[in-house]
Amino acid sequence: EAQVTQNPRYLITVTGKKLTVTCSQNMNHEYMSWYRQDPGLGLRQIYYSMNVEVTDKGDVPEGYKVSRKEKRNFPLILESPSPNQTSLYFCASSFSVGTSGSGGQFFGPGTRLTVL
Amino acid sequence: DAKTTQPPSMDCAEGRAANLPCNHSTISGNEYVYWYRQIHSQGPQYIIHGLKNNETNEMASLIITEDRKSSTLILPHATLRDTAVYYCIVADSWGKLQFGAGTQVVVTP
After folding, report:
1. Which residue has the higher pLDDT, A76 or B100?
2. Do the strands B103-108 and B9-13 form a parallel or antiparallel pair, or are they unpaired?
3. How much is the mean pLDDT over chain A?
4. What's the average model confidence in pLDDT over B44-73?
């Protein structure tokens, strides 16, 4: 089954404790991205990757890191989480975006993170 | 970067067509218009996309004006399960997607 998986789905942690949220897709997609969603707001892009070893900042990259060492995986790293990073996080992937317009993005089920 | 503007909410009667507008007046010539929806806090779901021609699939139709400054998503026969937030986004050529605030669509019996 074609899918984007995220782990963990729920996480409660404390300020300053490093954490990683994993994202994996099984569709051989080049493009992957991370979003966060907060009450009353739409989705805001954190980071994206056009392909392996290529990453770029989205609209709200502060406090986050990503890596793309393999095509299928795109982990989101919070080196020193703070309460303002409490949010619902989504990972997404697609074959491509923008000018090629080859299709839409597949989104994962979301990770609800609480930082105390 | 192109940005989109959508009405915050709209209601639709079950079985009727729902027409969702989106303005994207600064869209570039080679940028596509994408529509997604999100039910509760689930991951957004892709609906349809287009460049300049009208598009139709099993979920919806997309009508893009000739000047490409606006578009309309049409759900031909809305059902209760279509209640969701609908997002209109324009794809940047560098992969940077910008979601608008979305339109909360409520389908009523």
Report:
1. A76
2. parallel
3. 92
4. 94
Asked whether the beta carbons of residue A50 and residue B95 sit closer than 8 angstroms, the reply is: yes
Terminal-to-terminal C-alpha distance of chain A:
36
Q: What is the mean pLDDT of residues B3-24?
A: 95
Q: Does A50 touch chain B (CB under 8 A)?
A: yes
If DSSP codes are grouped into helix, strand and coil, which group holds residue B81? helix
Per-residue pLDDT at B76 exceeds 60:
yes
Report the gap between the CA of B77 and the closest CA in chain A (Å). 22
For B82, the 3-state DSSP assignment is helix
Q: Which residues contact B58 (CB under 8 A, 6 or more apart)?
A: none
| b/e per residue B20-53 (b: at least 16 CB within 10 A) | bebbbeebeeebbbbbbbbeeeebbbbbbbbbee
